[in-house]
Amino acid sequence: MSATLRSVPRPDFREVAREAVEAKAPALALRQRPRRNRKAEWSRRLVRETVLTADDLIWPIFLIDGEGRREPVSSMPGVERLTVDQAVREAERAASLRIPAIGLFPYTDHSLRDARGSEALNGKNLVCRAIRAVKAAVPAIGIITDVALDPFTSHGHDGLLHDDGRILNDETVAVLIEQALVQAAAGADVVAPCDMMDGRVGAIRDALDRAGFGDVQIMAYAAKYASAFYGPFRDAIGTRLKGDKLTYQMDPHNGAEALREVALDLAEGADMVMVKPGLPYLDVVRRVKETFDVPTFAYQVSGEYAMVMAAAGHGWIDGERAMIESLVAFKRAGADGILTYFAPRVAERLQASL
Ligand code: PBG
């Protein structure tokens, strides 16, 4: 250490603090005291900027074949795969909790998966049967279905896989069009292309309109990143992915590119756009909302759910509070709604606090 540094006398901190208090300088100088508005619960409620309600929630539900069965998803504590009859019961519960919409995700029997994802085009596949059953029993709830081939392909990709390892764009879009029509015909209210092929939103919009499904909305997974946070979802739908999705899903390093993706999907006719995953991408949610000011959704994905549940399970965090706080964060960032596995739990809590 240099001699000059050592020669500076160290002030007596307690002395300095006592002088400051005696001078009452802070109290006099501060006209603005942000803590005043936080002094009581009524006041905090009064100045609150964002409010989370049941109207903000979309509940993704996993389906399995059979009847009267519920299977826990091991990497997602509290989440189960449901047979169609059970899914109908949960849709009824969702409607009574005022959750506006559910998403349906099938665990396709492995014997029905092939390289081309043919089962996606079967009008009597699991997801189509669930759409019909829920529509018949709970007509007032919105039904959203994924347009992508991954629950149906043996290799786990969202599109058609060429021998040389490429995912074929235009050939995939041709299949996705048919998949969307099959879902619309079964009664889906919203189709949600989540495959990230180029040009699929426009192609699906044209086909829906031509086939007389002009009212079917498109929620585009517009900015969907190649993320490690999808792990538990792949477990839930039984996907064994060969390779990775880096040539079609977005690079997590990019933000401006998300705006270009959203612009394209809107130009092609998307009614709503989505950013996915959620919490690690709130900057993207904010940029999308501020740039386009269209209905903007975010997906709190399986890995985000699993992290909260795992930490809460160990007693490391308060799971209930972390759940609410994370969903409020989506709203604060500008999201109009959130796809979340917490949906029924949050809605129950919100109802109880009314
Ligand atoms: C399928 C799809 C995925 C998710 C939703 N739709 C997985 C993936 O793209 O690999 C992830 C949802 C979640 O993790 O909760 N294309």
**Averaging pLDDT over every residue, what do you get?**
96
What is the 3D form?
Answer: elongated
Q: Report the order of strands and helices.
A: HHHHEEEHEHEEEHEHEHHEHEHHEH
Biggest β-sheet: strands ordered side by side in the sheet: 1-4-5-8-9-10-11-12
The CATH homologous superfamily of the largest domain is called Aldolase class I
Q: Radius of gyration, rounded?
A: 25 Å
Bound compounds: ligand PBG
CATH architecture of the largest domain: Alpha-Beta Barrel
Q: Biggest sheet, in brief? A: 8 strands, parallel, barrel
CATH class identity of the largest domain: Alpha Beta
Beginning-to-end CA distance, first to last residue:
63 Å
Low-confidence stretches: none
Descriptive report:
The protein is α/β, with parallel strands linked by helices and 354 residues long. The protein folds into 2 domains: 2-33, no CATH class; 45-352, Aldolase class I (TIM Barrel). It has helices at 3-7, 13-23, 25-29, 41-46, 84-96, 126-137, 169-186, 200-210, 231-236, 256-267, 282-292, 302-313, 319-333, 343-352, and strands spanning 57-63, 70-72, 80-82, 101-106, 142-147, 160-161, 167-168, 190-193, 217-224, 272-276, 296-300, 337-340. The protein has an 8-stranded parallel beta barrel, surrounded by 9 helices. Strands 6-7 form a two-stranded antiparallel sheet. Strand 4 (101-106), helix 6 and strand 5 (142-147) form a beta-alpha-beta unit. Helix 5 packs across helix 6 (126-137), helix 7 (169-186) packs across helix 8 and helix 12 runs antiparallel to helix 13 (319-333). It is elongated, with a radius of gyration of 25 Å. The protein starts with a helix and ends with a helix.
